[in-house]
Amino acid sequence: MANRNINQPRAHAGTWPPQAVPSAGTARPGTRLWQTLIGTLQAWARAEAGPGRLLPWVPVAFGAGIALYFAAEHEPVAWVAASTAAVLAIAAFLSRRQKWFPLIVMLAAIAAGFAIATLKTARIAHAVLAKPLYGVALTGYVETHEERERTDRFVLRVTTMESPRSQVRLERVRLSVRKGAAPAVGSFVQLKARLQPPLQPLRPGSYDFGRDLYFQGIGASGFVTGSIKAVDPPNVPGWRLRYAATMQGFRDAIDARIRTVVSGDARAIATALLTGRRDAISPEVNDAMFVSGLGHVLSISGYHMAVVAGVVFFTVRALLALIPAFTVTFPIKKYSAAAALAAALFYLLLSGAEVATQRSFFMTAVVLLAIMVDRRAITFRTLAVAAMIVLVAMPEALVHPSFQMSFAATLGLVALVQGGVPVLLASPDHSATARAALWGGREIILLTLASLVAGLATTPYAAFHFHRVTPYGVFANLLAMPVVSVLVMPAGLLGLAAMPFGFDGVFWRLMDVGIQWMIVVTQWVAALPGAIGRVAAFGQGPLIAATLGIILLGLLRTPLRWIGAGVLALSIAAVLTVKMPDVLISNDGHHVAVRGRDGRLQWMRSTKDTFLQKEWLGADADPRLPNEASLGHGVACDVAGCVAALADGALVALALQPDAFADDCAQAVLIVTSKQPPGDCAARVIDAETLRASGALTLRRSGDGFVTTAARPTGANRPWSGAVPDVAEPSSAAGRGNRPVDATPAEADVQADDSAAQ
User: What is the mean pLDDT of the chain?
Assistant: First the structure.
């Protein structure tokens, strides 16, 4: 037998036909596709996390930390929040060469935002009025003065406060007076007033005006009763009051000069553009401005700062360019930027330095400083630095609509400049582009794109806060904003410069021409069919999703940005499918709205509150006005109360007198009352004590009962909206200060506790 070669391959049993065996390193088609997809996603992710790409996300994380602070149920412990932020900051520094460094930085930024907001609230802590007070004697300094259509309003820094019913001491109060009766800024006055707690949210999820007042240092609002007496101050006013009085004098002088030439709404708008006073504009024109999408013109913001800085920058640069020695020897571009920065600062001070104006100034200042240090001015880094400055100085700005809308629009415009505009301007020698530019087509395209991008970016916030969108906003801005930019604002600046010399009248007339055109445009656009795009109120979830979508679309560079479009689509779907409440109840129980069989709200009320009615109707996307008779259809009222039927026929009652309980408890499923109901009432009762603890309520029908949502959830206790105390006076540390507290217990309580102990 022949010897067998041990290296000879052995025979194997097989199948027919033979199966293809994958060679080494070869994967199935499905596997290859999956690996390719994973590899592409990893490459995109590495590109997004590359050098310089982390900075724009820091203010996003910082803002998320601030948002977490405002979402807390009770006030966080300041030292714990600060310590956590410090530990995470140290950890981020130590891990700067590690692969998890971006994650640690984001966590540190979130903790820092949370801590900054906590520390800001602790630093400005002050008392907030918890219940109405009447006949309160006040003395103090007038800090601000504001003109409105029918009344004037001022903020009083309280020196002494005397009330027979309360020992609370407030630092600042905001008071309304008869038109023309407001005292001068900086004066020391003595008066009596009726004070109310800061306005609570009018419905769950609506804007918290009390929070705004708290961060302004204001603990109550109200109106003056009787006369205001100017008296000698107990001490010399500080520099802040003297500065406020000086700037108010400038505003009054400007307004007086404009009045001599311009009148009506044109005068009010001109004053608003230069000094920030916008409350004298008639309601008709004011509403038309917002309906048409031109309402942003009335609030001094980034646009106004950009125009002021731009006009000064190019004017100074053009003048310096006329001197050859300056052009050759000195960097006139940097000098022009410095002059523009000084002009923007003066405009900030003149306009009252409100939160929106401060934010706009910081943004403009960062851009101008970038020019002065030879950096690119319009970049995501510039926007990130400006956002961080604003959020560190004013963390409360994050929840304000002006901040949200302004930075959303700016993010969209910066993304447009970084991506779309270079593509549009990349071929200036192209014949088609050259011909379009010759006729101004390129400028029109740029203006249209800018208006469209800014309008789309701000739409979620306008819908959330104001319950409306502006379908014709781009059209109105195309017609009006070139005139405002080229004529109105430059004429206003020249008028300010010419005032000391007495030649300002011609410039106010030029402003009048441009403003009249703007008024014509805004009223015409507002009257177009479908000009008012109403949006029903939706929760914070869709708004957060829309914000995330805008950020992803704006900041990401790779195709991963289209994830943002998907998130935006989800937020729109959530808005369109939101379920509206069946019953709304005001925080004082005087107003109850019931959704009837026709799907519209039916109104039961015991007092008149037009502002609340406008808010509820707007949140319901209801075009009706508060005085329309249809609001009362389906409501039956008598002296004892009112009754209205839900869509399923169940009755809701507003009981004004105890006599109403006999019928209401037997027939209604829900009773709202300020009276004491009987203990055996079969209906669900919402009384004054419940509303005092929960604030305004919304209820949705669920089976035979209701699902309730409160403006002040159970357990919520924040400095601007404290939990309902068990005693008459608030017991917060801000309200007590260092005053001694009477510790004497009631004799009956002592006897009861002693009996229980025995």
Answer: 83
Label residues 85-118 b or e (16+ Cβ within 10 Å = b). beebbeebeeeeeeeebeebbbbbbbbbbbbbbb
3-state secondary structure 578-636: CCCCCEEECCCCCEEEEECCCCCEEEEECCCCHHHHHHHHHHCCCCCCCCCHHHHCCEE
Length of the chain: 758
At residue 15, the pLDDT reads: 47
Q: How far is CA 89 from CA 99, 112, 191, 427, 480, in A?
A: 16, 8, 51, 46, 48
Q: Is 678 helix (H, G, I), strand (E, B) or coil?
A: coil
Closest CA relative to residue 380, chosen from 353, 414, 407, 351: 414
Cis bond before residue 471 (omega within 30° of 0) = no
Q: Which residue has the tokens 């306005």?
A: 199
Residue 432, burial from CB neighbour count under 10 angstroms (0-12, 13-18, 19+): exposed
CB 170 within 8 A of CB 158: yes
pLDDT of 67: 95
Tell me which DSSP letter residue 30 carries.
Answer: H
Select the highest-mean-pLDDT range: 35-44, 145-154, 157-166.
157-166
Query: Using CA atoms, how far apart are residues 152 and 576, in angstroms rounded to an integer?
Result: 41
pLDDT in tens, 388-439: 988 998 999 899 888 888 888 888 888 887 765 655 554 555 555 555 444 5
DSSP state of 168: -
Sheet holding 583-585: strands in order across?
Answer: 601-605, 591-595, 583-585, 697-702, 705-710
Per-residue DSSP letter, 755? H
- Tell me how far apart the alpha carbons of residues 181 and 229 are, in angstroms, rounded to a whole number: 11
Structure tokens at 19: 């199966």
Identify whether the C-beta of residue 181 lies closer than 8 Å to the C-beta of residue 152: yes
3-state DSSP assignment of residue 548:
helix
Higher per-residue confidence, 149 vs 231? 231
pLDDT in tens, 74-106: 899 999 999 999 999 999 999 888 888 889 999
Strands 668-673 and 684-686: parallel
The more confidently predicted of residues 600 and 744 is: 600
Unique residue bearing structure tokens 């800061």: 198
- The token duo for 695 is 């604030």
